[in-house]
Amino acid sequence: MWLGVTRTLKSTCSELPVSVLFVPARLLSSHHRRRRRSTKATMSLDWFTEVDLHRETNNKEHRTSEISVEELIVRRGQSFKLTLKLAQPFKSGFDQLTMTAETGNYPSEDLGTRSRFGVPDKVPRSASAKAVWKAELHKSSSPETRILILIITPPADTPIGEYKLSARHKDKEKKLGNLSVLFNPWIPDDWVFMPNEAERQEYVMSEQGIIYRGGGSFISPMSWDFGQFEKDMVKICMKLLDRNIKHWLNPADDVSARCNPIYVSRVVSAIINSADEGGVLMGNWGNDFSGGLAPTHWSGSYVILKKWYESYYQPVKFGQCWVFAGVMCSVMRLLGIPCRVVTNFQSAHDTNKNLTIDTYFDSKGVKKKESSDSIWNFHVWVEGWMKRPDLAEDGKYDGWQVVDPTPQERSEGIFCCGPTSLVAILNGETDLKYDVPFVFAEVNADSIYWLDKSDGSKVKIFTDTNTVGQNISTKSVGSNKRMDITDTYKHKEGTAKERNVFKYAIDKIENGTMLPRNIGGTAARVMSEALEMNDETGPNERTPSSLPQSQLLIRFEEVSKPEKGKDVNLKLIVSSDSNIPRTFSINISVQRMTYTGQPTGNIQTEVMEQKLLPGKDLTIPILVPFSTYHKYMIHSQTMTITTIITDLRNKENVYLASNRVVLTNPPISITVSGESRVNQEMTAEVVFMNPVNETLRNCILTLSGCGLLIGEETTELPNLLPNNRVRVKLVFVPHKTGERTLLVNFSCTAFRDIKTSCTVNINP
Questions:
Q1: CA dihedral of 128, 131, 132, 133, whole degrees rounded to 10
Q2: 3-state DSSP assignment of residue 134
Q3: pLDDT at 88
Q4: Is the pLDDT assigned to residue 319 strictly greater than 90?
Q5: Among 236, 235, 409, 264, which residue's Cα sits nearest to residue 332?
Q6: By mean pLDDT, which of 62-71, 85-94, 431-440, 490-499 is the weakest?
Q7: Among 314, 405, 651, 745, which residue is least crowded by beta carbons within 10 Å?
Q8: Is the confidence at residue 545, as pLDDT, over 50?
Q9: Among candidates 73, 165, 62, 177, which has minimal Cα distance to 118?
Q10: Interatomic CA distance for residues 604 and 619, integer angstroms
């Protein structure tokens, strides 16, 4: 059965017989015309008659015309043109035109936030002036006919920001206009220079991307709309810089330090989260999202940043790691720092700074909350591209740097992380700044599994050196394929090189003076424990089983693909090389887990005795019915199935295996039809089938996509009966050209935030 949803919206020009029309074409057309109209700016002044900032031409040459052609936005280290028409001829050998560029409330030549320059360049300035701008007369200038065409160059170390540009002739000074200055990855003198054009297009200019989520070997791509060139993004990002704590404490030094991408990226990582005052996003890793939206709702950055800006800088509720990272990537790309979103699967959160993650289970296989350490299914951060002369003059640590805006631990008193050189992480150089020990642990920490016995004692079951830091992923350049970059963070697991780097990292932490840590034992002891682990694992295990006394192999196998709305079916398979029968007590526990590795609900527990015969496998079916797990899993995608197996002949022989199951969402589809042109209507059709035997209520469909819609548009749908299908037609009018992504989000009582997307190439 098909359920059709239609709606007719009226605009001031006509009644449109479409399913849903989010924005009247007339309004979008006028918006587009405003963005594309002639941008020649003129102003009447006493000593010259006209100023032309050549906004459209300059912005195109500086690759900022996607942001705006109504504001002058340039990249540092690159020249831009300005034309002055004077009231009288300009005598090059006699007249002096002095110009001033200022940023911040406390401009200073010595801090590089105020520059005096001119034609000819005989302008008196401080001997210690930094970031001095330059002006030259273009060869086509005609001073005798009162036309000066100036070529102005902000140096490659200019602090980024919003500038006021003024000119003085004799005793009269006039404001010429405002401009914004960004980093410039196209020129070698800028610390963010990236030599490859395809990479610059991907990591600076692309407004769409992919963020990877999931767990272990299950990797799920999610389209993300960065939208860094949407309306008012320059104002939003500049205001964001002004809201950081360092600006409050010392605004003059903060604005001056914006010449440095190391400083700027660190500031951005702090201000994206609201753990300290003034941040954009409030984190929430619980189940109660009242007063805001669940982190899974978001599909792009612009809506979040715009909401923060328009609410007078109140934190937007709520975010988790991939949302923090997506928003930060948008800000970094807008500012001109090449940036990409990176996902680390099986990511460690080491709170006690000893490079080990301790996990405790009771005798029934239930994971306990005793340790604050955890292994997240995945964790998402960003990498920014920049030079690191603060670490080495030879460029050894230049290139990609980890910067993490998720508020996990404080760094120098503030919830921020990085920039952390990938080279330093790879080499275990945990004495270098910033935050190398924390990021090194995220991808390299060893896992220790403990049995918490009823008498209060704790028994180490095994040590696992392989689980943490898997399938480190980012989007490929120029395609939607996943690129595995694990080898840029760590050497191959199990190799002598990887173990030597781990030992070196611990030695640096113990003996270094920059970042002392509390280590539970010597590097030699940790190494000897790590080498005691047994390397035999089953093909589908998430954590390897222990082999303390007798050989026992434990593995989980999926009977069917785990999907929300359906029963979860697995098999537990136990085998041994023993030549005698063995009787075991088997405890199987199923728990709801947050993606951060914390147990938040016991779904079901089974206890049984089973006999394992020589030369045969013991197969135990595991069924977790939808009706049993549903109420626990509305806001979660992950359950952990753990087994504790005790040899009843020798109860000291205890074995553990644990498997994380990531549930996929039911399928939803989207197709687009119509002429793919700016200001021409297009139709999207979304189809969803209710897979469960209950009526879905409070059904909401949200569409977004930079260049296709302005912000988010939401449609309420009627209740959806069991085994019924909803088909929704939605009309939208693109207002930007190029490859665009249309994103869909569907929520209801039983399912939260089922997403899909499609790519549309919009022609002029």
A1: -170
A2: strand
A3: 82
A4: yes
A5: 264
A6: 85-94
A7: 651
A8: no
A9: 165
A10: 19
Reference 602, options 593, 594, 610; nearest CA is: 593
Structural tokens at position 419: 């920039």
Bridge partner list, 655? 645
Given the residues 54, 62, 247, 379, the one annotated as active site = 379
Terminal Cα distance for the chain, rounded: 40
For tokens 């934190």, name the residue. 315
ω into 338 cis (within 30 of 0): no
Residue 379 among the catalytic residues: yes
Number of alpha carbons in the 13 Å side-chain half-sphere of residue 549: 10
Q: Give how far Cα 25 sits from Cα of 15, 66, 281, 403, 682, Å.
A: 12, 21, 33, 41, 11
Could you give the CA distance from residue 328 to residue 274 in angstroms, rounded to a whole number? Answer: 13
Give the tokens for residue 39. 């941008």
Identify the active-site residue in 52, 373, 404, 464.
404
Q: Which residues pair with 72 in a beta bridge?
A: 179
Find the mean pLDDT for residues 340-351: 92
Q: pLDDT digits over 610-659, tens only? A: 999 988 999 999 999 999 999 998 888 889 999 989 999 888 888 888 88
Residue 223: other Cβ atoms inside 10 A: 21
Give the span between the Cα atoms of 648 and 258, in whole angstroms: 66
* pLDDT tens string 464-514: 888 899 999 999 999 999 999 999 999 998 899 999 999 999 888 887 644
Cis peptide preceding 263, ω within 30 of 0:
no
Confidence band, pLDDT 50/70/90 cuts, at residue 42 = very low
The Cβ of residue 187 has, within 10 Å, a number of other Cβ atoms equal to 14
Please give the pLDDT value at position 277. Answer: 74
Condensed to tens digits (0 to 9), the pLDDT of residues 195-226 reads: 999 999 999 999 999 999 988 778 999 999 99
Separation of alpha carbons 679 and 699, rounded Å = 30
- CA–CA separation, 520 vs 756, rounded Å? 46
- Give the mean pLDDT of 651-679: 89
CB atoms within 10 A of CB 372: 11
Distance of CA 170 to the CA centre of its chain: 51
Task: State residue 368's pLDDT score.
Answer: 64
pTM: 0.86
746 CB-side CA count, 13 A:
27
Angle 384-388-390 (CA atoms, 0-180°, nearest 5)?
140
Sign (positive/negative) of CA torsion 231, 235, 240, 241? positive
Residue 656: predicted pLDDT: 86
Q: How many CA atoms lie within 13 A of 252 on its CB side?
A: 7
Catalytic pick among 321, 416, 699, 706? 321
Angle at which helix 436-444 crosses helix 496-511, to 10 degrees, equals 150
Mean pLDDT of the chain: 85
Q: Is 706 a catalytic residue?
A: no
**Any catalytic annotation for residue 416?**
no
Judge contact between 281 and 273, C-beta under 8 A: yes
Report the C-alpha gap between 212 and 220 in whole angstroms: 6
